[in-house]
Amino acid sequence: MYNGPILDNHLHLDPVNGRGAEAAAEFAEVGGTHLNVLNKPSWHLVGEVDDAEGFRETFDITVEVTREADETLPGKAWPVLGVHPALISQLVDRGYDAEAAAELMKTGIDVAAEYVAEGPALAIKSGRPHYDVSDAVWAASNDVMRHAFARGAEVGCAVQLHTEGGEAFTEVTEWAEAEGLPREQVVKHYSNGYVEGPIPSVICDKDELERACGGDWPFFMETDFIDDPDRPGAVMGPKTVPRRTEWLAEEGYSEALYRIHVETPARVYGVDTEATLQ
Q1: Which residues are CB-neighbours of 232 under 8 A, at least 6 positions away?
Q2: In the chain, domain spans
């Protein structure tokens, strides 16, 4: 059986509209120990953003709720901060052209990198739209993502990506390496059990988890819990990673669970989930 740390690599805690740190307490009640807390899109937390201060307000909300969550856990909670790639569509709809929207989003990435460099944040969030967009928006989004890779390399942190689905992302990791960021510090959020290029952060589908456990590559588990009172449990509830961990242990995957919850966090983020257990 597996008795080590349990990390949910990607969930949201929303103290403005949702349950906030209460959801982290629910995670801890069923055995969860560590969380990577992603800021929700800025328009959900603070409304329209047009400058660095709007991003700071968004990030401060997430840093504070992560601190509150940290107090409920036997391990630790870390903020992962950045700019949701769908912001470019919001900005274009408001009258920005794609290049101007990208410049504002790069400003948000720069602010997130400051939070990493100064201590509260663990990593940066970026990506590109997971839906059809114009060629100009697609190119601008890729430019923002490459900027995130460059800033991640500068401050020495991983970058979590929100992108379209699929498994072929070798080109993306080549872009990261060109910007100085090792490919093992590029994480594909909401991933299948295997992807080419980035480290997969596997959504807790049983089939995809078994696929990942059956391989020898590093990966994470995540719920992408969105903390929306109108959609409780969406995408998956905060209890899911601990429960899937227990299920995988019963299926005989204890070695893979050590890889998920201990080895991969150390490899990608430089954190020790065993040493941070109380």
Answers
A1: none
A2: 81-269
State residue 14 phi and psi, 5-degree precision.
Answer: -120, 95
Using CA atoms, how far residue 152 sits from 39, 54, 126, 202, in Å, is 17, 21, 10, 22
CATH architecture group of domain 81-269: Alpha-Beta Barrel (3.20)
What is the amino acid identity at position 193? G
Helix (H, G, I), strand (E, B) or coil at 226: coil
Amino acid at 163: T
- Give me 58's structure tokens: 């968004």
Q: For residues 262 and 121, what is the distance between their CA atoms, to the nearest angstrom?
A: 19
User: What Rg do the C-alpha atoms of the chain give, in angstroms?
Assistant: 17
Structural tokens at position 49: 């953003």
Q: From CA 183, how far away is CA 127, in angstroms rounded?
A: 15
Q: Do residues 12 and 45 touch, judged by C-beta distance below 8 A?
A: no
pLDDT of 78-128, one tens digit each?
Answer: 999 999 999 999 999 999 999 999 999 999 999 999 999 999 999 999 999
Alpha-carbon dihedral sign for residues 63, 272, 82, 29: negative
Both tokens of 142, joined, read 């890729």
Cis-peptide into 235, omega within 30 deg: yes
CB 9 within 8 A of CB 221: yes
Task: Decide: residue 214, CB within 10 A, 0-12 exposed, 13-18 middle, 19+ buried.
Answer: exposed
What are the tokens at 175? 């872009």
Of all helices (H) and strands (E), which one includes residue 257? helix 254-258
* Global model pTM greater than 0.90: yes
